[in-house]
Design the sequence.
């Protein structure tokens, strides 16, 4: 654990990581807060689900747009404006959304589209804050692992705030986004960071074949993750065990946390692409056995194993992005990965529902396995053509400061 202690002692490292996690709590809170609010005002599950999905798709659409703006105009103006607008969307929903579905839809679109791209911004900052690729790798691993906390702490905060009122839960969601954003944007690294010139092409990072491969692969991983939330509920219903869904989701997140922390304990050298192929294979191998959907205590073990390689995959992908993103597009490139996950997750949830209705819990979990295998095949077959094999070929353990 010394590598993480040394990392957190670096100037601004703990502040940037902590502020980003605080500001990203709305990502783990919004869906539940919206559903609880709609239900409290007499709306049905259909309206609740539609508004939650619309919010998620709005987040996916907004991240690359805001990321491109950050590459051009810096972080503080874009992040602060976005956080304020997103909080205004949640406030609009709390004040008037219970009266009109049209207003509610507009509010969740604003809250989602304007969600500040703190995740992408942080990953763009690390190379300028830390000393060399070894420290950046550790930062990516800890970042990928720590985000699992968002989807554990976030819903708990919503439930606690909803004891007062569902409006309070929505307002808290927006307020935490502003608070975390201010922690980041008032720091010196965020204030002085500027994207490199050269990002004016209309396609941005999408003009890089390697970036397109990574986005396609992570969309498939997102499908597997989206499946899990639906399939876990189907499993709980099939086993007549009400607590099983929450337990399985928590264990999968716990596995990702363990895997990410373990992965970042020592620097990784050698071809990053070869490492990514291996990690993707392990991730797929963790998803496929879920199709079996055995009883306790085997299924909880499979849930942990299914999460072990998620954070390492993400950390390795982040390393490749630094080399594959065209000049001046690094923040937008990371934002596209967020979008890939969001779109894939939405598709996975829908496919899991269809598969679950048609073939039960085994069919629902089979979609997760299929998503993992497709993610692996995309990296394996399209990676060399996309230039992944030539990117980040050597990552030395000790290097001078890197700035972007």
Sequence:
């Amino acid at each position: 654990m010394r590598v993480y202690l040394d990392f957190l002692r670096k100037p601004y490292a703990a502040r940037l990581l902590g502020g980003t996690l605080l500001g990203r709590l709305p990502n783990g809170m919004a869906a539940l807060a919206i559903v609880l609010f709609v239900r409290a005002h007499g709306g049905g599950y259909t309206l609740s689900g539609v508004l939650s999905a619309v919010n998620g798709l709005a987040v996916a659409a907004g991240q690359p747009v805001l990321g491109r703006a950050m590459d051009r105009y810096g972080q503080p103006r874009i992040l602060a404006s976005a956080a304020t607008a997103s909080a205004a969307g949640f406030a609009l929903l709390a004040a008037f959304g219970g009266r009109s579905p049209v207003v509610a839809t507009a509010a969740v679109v604003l809250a989602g589209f304007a969600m500040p791209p703190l995740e992408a911004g942080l990953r763009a900052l690390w190379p300028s804050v830390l000393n060399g690729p070894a420290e950046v790798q550790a930062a990516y691993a800890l970042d990928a692992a720590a985000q699992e906390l968002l989807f554990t702490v976030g819903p708990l905060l919503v439930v606690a705030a909803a004891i007062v009122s569902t409006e309070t839960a929505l307002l808290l969601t927006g307020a935490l986004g502003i608070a975390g954003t201010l922690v980041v944007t008032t720091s010196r690294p965020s204030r002085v960071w500027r994207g490199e010139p050269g990002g004016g092409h209309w396609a941005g990072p999408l003009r890089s074949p390697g970036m397109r491969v990574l986005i396609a692969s992570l969309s498939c991983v997102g499908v597997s993750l989206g499946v899990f939330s639906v399939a876990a509920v189907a499993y709980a219903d099939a086993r007549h065990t009400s607590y099983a869904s929450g337990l399985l989701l928590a264990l999968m997140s716990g596995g990702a946390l363990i895997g990410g922390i373990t992965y970042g304990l020592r620097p990784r050298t050698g071809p990053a692409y070869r490492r990514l192929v291996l990690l993707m294979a392990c991730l797929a191998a963790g998803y496929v056995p879920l199709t079996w959907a055995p009883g306790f205590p085997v299924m909880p073990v499979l849930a942990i194993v299914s999460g072990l390689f998620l954070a390492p995959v993400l950390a390795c992908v982040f390393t490749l992005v630094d080399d594959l993103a065209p000049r001046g597009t690094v923040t937008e490139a990371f934002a596209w990965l967020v979008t890939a996950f969001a779109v894939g997750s939405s598709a996975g949830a829908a496919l899991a529902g269809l598969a679950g209705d048609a073939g039960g819990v085994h069919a629902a979990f089979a979609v997760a396995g299929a998503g993992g295998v497709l993610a692996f095949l995309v990296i394996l077959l399209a990676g060399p053509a996309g230039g992944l094999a030539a990117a980040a070929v050597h990552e030395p353990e000790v290097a001078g400061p890197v700035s972007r």
